[in-house]
């Protein structure tokens, strides 16, 4: 059976770890998991895109799931404060990647999918968008606000199980100058997106140079008009 996710600690871009002092040592997925965090609003992890209230307010991001160079399934639109993205848990609510069907899925992809487990929790908070690693394997994160300004070297942050990272900083994003002619070798440059791979890293420090070489990854397309 799937082990419960570990309690969260925070990981800053400078690798400073900050425990969140959760009252529970473990969190059941069927609980309103991260509500013990002082920065999260108590709510159930529901499929916000299907909520009757979904049309009453604007979404803050869309999530695309990729396997190598192939996008699998539809864009998942997020309206609520947080969304859980996981593999295949019988009592889970949110974006279930295990339900996405693709013919001729290779063995490498399937092995990686099996490692997603409880996956991640994406949370829109006052200071930005946080990604909480609820799985038993690392996740790898890249975004414009995690990169060094004016540096063309891709920076990918490894986030271990039980830790989290501010994947996107709204204030810092407003201060960045986004040149239209930037040409990154691993794909189009989007100043309002976050890329997260499960279990496998990419970039200069890894054998996979491009995120499209990763078996399973997410593209978080942020709606910065809704902050």
UniProtKB/TrEMBL annotation:
SMART domains: DWB. One of its GO terms (biological process) is cell differentiation. Keywords: Transcription, Transcription regulation. Residues 60-227 form the MH2 domain. Residues 20-35 have a biased composition (Polar residues). SUPFAM superfamilies: SMAD/FHA domain. GO terms for molecular function: I-SMAD binding; transcription regulator inhibitor activity. Gene3D superfamilies: 2.60.200.10. It comes from the Eukaryota. GO terms for cellular component: heteromeric SMAD protein complex. The keyword Ribosomal protein does not apply. The keyword Transcription applies. Residues 1-35 are annotated as: Disordered. PANTHER family: MOTHERS AGAINST DECAPENTAPLEGIC HOMOLOG 6, SMAD. This is Mothers against decapentaplegic homolog 6. It comes from Notechis scutatus (mainland tiger snake).
